[in-house]
Amino acid sequence: MRKLIFLLLTITLVVISLLTVKQFEYTQFQLFNESDKSGEVWEINILEGNPNVAKTENFQILHEISKELNVNIQRISYEKDDEHGDKMVYYVALSDSEHYFNNLNLINGVFLNTDSNSNEFLSTINTNSNNQIGQLELFKSFDPIEIRPMMAAERKKDIKGVYSLSGTENKDRFKELAISYGFSIGEAEKETQGILTEYPYQDMIYKTTIILFLLIGLATFHDLINNYKAIAIRKLLGFNFFEICGYLIARYLPLLLKSLISAFLIIIVYLYLYNGHSQIYEYLISLLQNLTPFSYAILTTFILTILGIFTINISQMIKNKKPMKIILILNILIRFILSIFLLITIYEGVNTYLTLKNTTSQEEKWEILNDYFFLGIVSESEDELSEIPNDEEKDRNFINFYKELESEGSIYIVPSAYYVTNIDQYLLDPNPWGYDGKRVEINKNYLDINPIYGVDGEQVELTEEEDELIVLVPERYLNAEEDIRQTIYEDFNYVYNDDENIDIEIIYVENNQTYFSYSTYFAEDENYLITDPIAVVVNANFDTSILMSHLAMGYGYYIKNSSSDDPFNQLDQLLDNYGFNDVWTPVSIAYASVESKIATEKELLQLTILTCILYAFLAFLLLFFSSMNYLEMNRQLLSIQRLFGYNLLEKHIVMYLFIIVFWFLILLISSYLVMNATLLTKLLILIVVLDICLITVIIKIKEFQIVMVRDE
């Protein structure tokens, strides 16, 4: 039993240590992004540099302003590297490099300084570039992060953009100086201070630790029961409470120390393989913080267990009569709690697996998004965005810009809220054809990658410009044509062509055709396929405000990559040509959101599988000990039943009924905590069958040993 206690202690320490690795990785990445943000941080929007000087001189002016104000100025850019993929670049005008790098460490090399040339940079990875002067230490790097001098931005960016600096006074002085140098400055906004969010899988640490504590307490209690005759003898010999506690501490303290050493060695080896011991001291401090509640819980567990021993009758101790009923009740209670966690964890694991399977099974369709990318909003100023529809020239420029994007092959699809994954249908408008109904919005280019066929069997093809508002309707809804027309009219009058009396053309298409959502937010349970919606075809005749809202949602509108070597730069140039490079900017390849979802689900699935294995192992231990206690308590009855020829089912029918009731109660409780009760029930049936099979095997093997051998 002491070996089991040692094993449980070691498992607990290793599990907490490994989960702390993921937690520390997550929080350190957030902290990295919060560096040099002491005090109030302001975002300043440079609308235009000095038009009378070259772009290089504008960036040099920015650097001089930084020195004059003695403040560090930073700009963040998301870029793509041919060799290392997506990366985040911090362009910094340094006036106080020591303050900027105060919370950062290097694996090797030196930090940038105020005199660094524009080619030098720092990175979280080893790029093998002669211009990399240092490698930043990060516990675990996701996409590479680089820090470069502000002058380096001249090769990638225009001077226009959003910059951040600390201090209200610095913000005001910066604006004055920049204007004096001929810059055009927009309104400054106070940056929202980053809040370190809790590690997404923090609850795994809590749940696993609670279960292991309960089992450690139960194992300790078992061990004390097996040896409580020795405690009784000490009490009879006059040992006081503290002397008996000293004996018990001497019995269990070495186990705890051995567990600590074993777990420490395991995690040290793991960290060496994981990240080469990067930031190991900071990690160990974080681990100690997580282990502090563990130490209190272990101490409390041992104290309560030891105190429980003193409630046992001494005469029973001397006669070596074990309190089997108490042990069995404790086993059942802890197993009940563990079984709830086990069932829900298996349910979550299966759900994650099904979601991951759904995502990866459509890989051929998702890969199309490698040829498209997102736009992001540069300025958060609502006034600036609202100016476009109200300014005749800007409105005309936007429509021309939108038409050019369409002509290059950009695609658009946004399903209604009806298809949002796991949405509560009771919250939606009941109109089946409205904004919350069985409806999607697409553009004509979408039909090139997801063909839809009309009732004549021919692929639907739309011309460049349509005077009417086109709606594709499955043939099955033929009888609902008037309702569909009325709903579309009410939803889109004044939105299409600024005309109250819009012309609606309905094109009937074959039934049972699907629209792939190209977004992880919609129709997840249906493999991201939307079957037989009505499809409203969006084009440049829609209201400008509507079209603008489509461009930078992070999903739905995907801009086609050009065939040039630098499509991001080409789109930047296109935005600049129409005067919108201070409003939108290319952010990332559209496939990146799918890739991120797959990576997150894989990590969650791995953690869930490990947790399930741990819970299943612990549940089996409890099942084994509960079976032993059950056989010990009913030893005499089972002996008599054996003599009278009772078969296995007749002898243990009550136990089997108890197992069914036990799991039924677990199902009742667990069903309140999950959304898919059908899946939960299927999983529970499998677990019950496995549970009955295991306990039957254990009883068949151990019954003869406990009942017959001892009777002899």
UniProtKB/TrEMBL annotation:
Regions crossing the membrane: 204-225, 255-274, 294-314, 326-347, 604-631, 652-673, 679-699
Keywords: Membrane, Transmembrane, Transmembrane helix
Name of the protein described by the UniProt record: DUF1430 domain-containing protein
Organism phylogeny: Bacteria, Bacillati, Bacillota, Bacilli, Bacillales
